[in-house]
């Protein structure tokens, strides 16, 4: 289990040398923030963006931060949390929906610590779930896919059926092009690249010519394969147009790094309540990535207009 540390040294020296100085470390609630993840920071965009958010906490609030990688079992998680608490950490992020139940149990033992994780339904007074409402981003990805397909066969590869972007994708495809057929594949694991590649082959053999890999651990590999095969793709979680500029039509981007900063600032001010928080296009925590030249300008503008109306009304085009 690798541990990574980072300390705002200059700020700490300033506190020592300058008496009577007022700053957020002295007046706020946050002492040290930590991030626990299942893999490594460099593994995938989701992890990289989480770490980016943690670094921004260090920069903005001037507090110590720490990352613990490769934490997957309950025993590993319990030890990681125990060690962090012993070191004075009072805000702990679990960078996965898989930490929800374990955090719920741990939060009842460590009542002075606030736990934060993502895309789950567990919460209590010191446990917050920060969720992306990804139905809308799936809808707009579906619109782009069905406007681009020549075979009227589009596909999505996802980990689990409960992902909101799946239903959104289907609705967006059918809204834009009722004749388009939606092929779906599920791999039942966020990180199983081998299963994702097999799913990709099945979709390709079914004539799919636009694909949406709805899992950040698998998306880059699928996009590269699609580029080799002349199939269009839509990026996921990060703006992935630079992976294959001729392949990626656009991306659905989740700004999880901004949620880290939001949670830390709220906690520091005493305003982070244990609850389920939901974020969408209206909050600018979900956005579309850069469009490729393969998406006509008129359709890009049409999509932007739909998104602006969605931000204002909360209604997708099929709900007007």
Automatic annotation (TrEMBL):
Subcellular location: Cell membrane
Topological category with respect to the lipid bilayer: Lipid-anchor
Family of the protein in this entry: Belongs to the BMP lipoprotein family.
This protein's UniProt keywords: Cell membrane, Lipoprotein, Membrane, Signal
Domain ABC transporter substrate-binding protein PnrA-like: 32-311
The organism's place on the tree of life at top rank: Bacteria
Cellular compartments per GO CC: plasma membrane
Tagged with keyword Cell membrane: yes
Identification of the protein by name: BMP family ABC transporter substrate-binding protein
Pfam families in UniProt: Bmp (PF02608)
PANTHER family noted in UniProt: ABC TRANSPORTER GUANOSINE-BINDING PROTEIN NUPN (PTHR34296:SF2), TRANSCRIPTIONAL ACTIVATOR PROTEIN MED (PTHR34296)
Main subcellular localisation: membrane
């Amino acid at each position: 289990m690798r541990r990574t540390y980072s300390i705002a040294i200059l700020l700490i020296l300033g506190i020592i040398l300058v008496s009577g100085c007022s700053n957020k470390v002295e007046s706020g609630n946050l002492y040290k923030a930590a991030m626990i993840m299942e893999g490594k920071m460099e593994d995938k965009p989701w992890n990289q963006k989480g770490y980016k958010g943690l670094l921004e906490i260090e920069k903005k609030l001037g507090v110590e931060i720490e990352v613990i990688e490769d934490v997957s079992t309950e025993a590993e998680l319990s030890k990681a949390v125990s060690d962090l608490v012993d070191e004075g950490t009072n805000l702990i992020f679990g960078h996965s929906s898989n930490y929800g139940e374990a955090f719920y149990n741990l939060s009842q033992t460590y009542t002075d610590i606030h736990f934060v994780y993502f895309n789950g339904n567990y919460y209590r007074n010191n446990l917050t779930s920060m969720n992306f409402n990804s139905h809308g981003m799936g809808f707009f990805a579906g619109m782009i896919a069905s406007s681009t397909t020549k075979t009227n066969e589009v596909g999505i590869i996802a980990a689990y059926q409960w992902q909101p972007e799946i239903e959104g994708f289907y609705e967006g495809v059918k809204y834009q092009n009722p004749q388009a057929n939606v092929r779906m594949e599920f791999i039942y694991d966020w990180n199983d690249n081998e299963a994702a590649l097999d799913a990709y082959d099945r979709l390709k053999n079914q004539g799919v010519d636009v694909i949406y890999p709805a899992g950040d651990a698998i998306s880059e590999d699928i996009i590269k394969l699609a580029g080799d095969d002349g199939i269009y793709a839509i990026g996921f979680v990060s703006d992935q147009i630079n992976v294959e500029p001729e392949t990626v039509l656009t991306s659905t981007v989740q700004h999880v790094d901004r949620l880290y900063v939001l949670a830390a600032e709220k906690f520091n001010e005493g305003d982070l309540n244990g609850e389920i928080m939901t974020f969408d296009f209206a909050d600018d925590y979900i956005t579309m990535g850069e469009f490729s030249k393969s998406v006509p300008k008129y359709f890009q503008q049409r999509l932007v207009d739909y998104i602006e109306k969605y931000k204002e009304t909360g209604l997708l085009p099929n709900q007007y």
